[in-house]
Design goal:
By secondary structure, the protein is of the alpha/beta class. The chain contains seven helices and five strands. Strands 3-2-1-4-5 form a five-stranded mixed sheet. The longest helix is centred in the first third of the chain and has 16 residues. The protein is globular, with a radius of gyration of 21 Å.
Length: 203
């Protein structure tokens, strides 16, 4: 089962139905030392039988193991949220912020990358109406809790969607430097004007 899924992923497949294109290949199974490639229905049933909590823990353990050697060097943690419009009936599909397809149910992918390499350290899939920084924060701090303190990022970098007071305050408490865009709201403009009037504001 795992061999079938790995081959499908390596072939660039994005849907279960694409697994069918591998079934007639006689060479690929030999590369992984498996007898045959299973059907898409077998893959669906096998994944549906996995307990979600245990499955996520298993995936994260192996993903952390793959990435751990890279974190000994100074690195930047990039945080981003992607809205994925959904079609049909999918678990967690809800109406929420959806700039490309307003009114379409979606998922919100909170993704945490190893900067520059764009290597995904973790992805938290949430309903479409849970797209804010407050919804992403638990997955962020869970990722850092699993990471030894001497391997923490030199900086957290994120866009304005993550620039909440609660998240920035927690970063300061944890001693994690951060760089985030701010929405240019009225109060932000007023704060910048006040700082610009002070000669020592850069200090």
């Amino acid at each position: 089962m795992l061999g079938t899924i790995v081959l499908s992923v390596l072939a660039g497949h994005k849907r279960y139905a694409h697994v069918t294109t591998l079934r007639a290949d006689g060479v690929l199974p030999q590369l992984l030392g498996i007898e045959r490639i299973l059907s898409e229905d077998s893959v669906r049933r096998a994944l549906a039988a996995i307990d979600e909590t245990a499955g996520v823990a298993w995936l994260r353990k192996h993903l952390d193991w793959c990435c751990a050697p890279l974190l000994a060097e100074p690195w930047i943690l990039d945080a981003d949220t992607t809205i994925k419009p959904l079609y049909g009936h999918q678990e967690g599909a809800t109406l929420g912020y959806n700039p490309k397809k307003p009114g379409r149910p979606s998922h919100a992918y909170h993704t945490f990358f190893l900067g520059t390499l764009r290597l995904a350290l973790d992805v938290d899939v949430m309903p479409g109406n849970e797209h804010t920084a407050n919804h992403a924060a638990p997955a962020l701090w869970d990722l850092l809790a699993r990471t030894p303190r001497d391997c923490w990022p030199a900086m957290l970098r994120a866009d304005k969607g993550f620039a909440s007071d609660a998240l920035m305050t927690r970063c300061e408490v944890e001693g994690l430097k951060y760089l985030m865009r701010l929405r240019l709201t009225k109060k932000v403009k007023e704060a910048l004007e006040r700082l610009a009037g002070r000669r020592d504001w850069r200090d």
